[in-house]
Write a structure and sequence with these properties.
The chain is of the alpha+beta class. It has 6 helices and 10 strands, in the order H-E-E-E-H-H-E-E-E-E-E-E-E-H-H-H. Strands 1, 2, 3, 4, 5, 6, 7, 8, 9 and 10 form a 10-stranded antiparallel beta sheet that branches. It starts with a helix and ends with a helix. It is globular, with a radius of gyration of 18 Å. A hairpin with a 3-residue loop joins strand 7 and strand 8.
C-alpha cells in the first residue's frame, strides 16, 4: 500500500504542477516558430493482461536545410534529453531524471522515490529514421510482476516525403509499450486511466508541440558527437511487429 500511496501522491502532484505550468505558458507571448507542428494524436490501449501501449504522434513541417542540419545521432541524443527536460519543467521540478552509467532513474523529488527505472538508452539511426529506446527495468509505477520485462519507452522520428525542395516533413512519435502499471494492478484500471495515463498523454502531447521551437537540450551524457557515430540498422522488433499487424 505504501507504493500505491506514493504513486497516487506523485500523480496528483504532477497533475497540479502540469496545470500550473500550462497556465503559465499560455500567459507568455508566443514567438515566431521555425517549424509548424500538426495537432498531436493519441492511441492508448490496455489489453486483457493489463499491458499498456500508448502512442502519441505529430507531423513537423520545417525548412529542409534545418532538417539536414539536425539529422544526426548527436541531435537524436539531444532530442532524448529534451524529452526529460520537458518532463521536469512541466512538473515544476518535482519529477527529475538521475543519470547513471547503465540506467536512468525518474524520481519524485529525489531518491529513494524512484517512479521509473530504465536501462541506458539504445540508439538506432539511418537516412530516414531515428530511434531512441529506454527499456523499462523497475520502479513504483511498474507492477512488480513486470520488473525486468520487455516494456519500453521509445521516441522515433521518421522522414516523410517533402512538400517541396525547400520544405521537409518529419513524423515524431513517442511510444510506451508492454508497460504494466502498478496503479492498475494495485487499485483499479479506471483510476490508472483517469490519473497516470491521462497525465502521460497530456505531457507527451505537450512535448511534441514544443518541438516546433526546434530547441533541443544539450545532452548530459554526450555519447555522440558526430553524424557517423551510428551506423544504419534494421527496424527494431517493436516497429516490425506493428507494421506487420497493420498489413495483416
Amino acid at each position: 500500500m505504501v507504493n500505491v500511496a506514493l504513486v497516487i501522491a506523485a500523480a496528483v502532484a504532477l497533475a497540479l504542477a502540469s496545470v500550473a505550468a500550462v497556465k503559465r505558458r499560455r500567459g507568455r507571448p508566443r514567438s515566431m516558430a521555425p517549424a509548424v507542428l500538426a495537432e498531436p494524436t493519441d492511441d492508448t490501449t490496455m489489453d486483457s493482461q493489463g499491458a499498456v501501449r500508448s502512442v502519441q504522434a505529430a507531423e513537423l513541417t520545417l525548412p529542409a536545410a534545418a532538417l539536414a542540419e539536425l539529422w544526426s545521432p548527436m541531435h537524436l541524443e539531444r532530442l532524448a534529453r529534451t524529452y526529460w527536460r520537458f518532463l521536469s519543467r512541466m512538473s515544476l521540478g518535482l519529477i527529475r531524471v538521475k543519470y547513471d552509467e547503465d540506467e536512468r532513474a525518474v524520481v519524485f523529488v529525489a531518491r529513494p522515490f524512484v517512479l521509473l527505472r530504465f536501462h541506458a538508452p539504445q540508439y538506432e539511426m539511418d537516412a530516414t529514421r531515428g530511434v531512441v529506446r529506454w527499456r523499462i527495468a523497475s520502479g513504483v509505477l511498474v507492477s512488480r510482476t513486470a520488473h525486468g520485462g520487455d516494456g519500453h519507452l521509445q521516441i522515433e522520428v521518421e522522414r516523410r516525403p517533402p512538400l517541396d525542395e525547400a520544405t521537409a516533413r518529419v513524423r515524431a512519435e513517442v511510444e510506451v509499450a508492454n508497460f504494466y502499471p502498478a496503479l492498475a494492478s494495485g487499485v483499479a484500471r479506471w483510476l490508472y486511466s483517469a490519473t497516470q495515463s491521462r497525465i502521460h498523454v497530456i505531457v507527451t502531447q505537450g512535448f511534441l508541440r514544443s518541438l516546433a521551437r526546434l530547441d533541443l537540450a544539450e545532452s548530459v551524457v554526450g555519447r555522440y558527437a558526430a553524424p557517423d557515430d551510428v551506423d544504419a540498422v534494421p527496424d527494431p522488433p517493436a516497429r516490425t511487429k506493428r507494421e506487420a499487424s497493420r498489413t495483416a
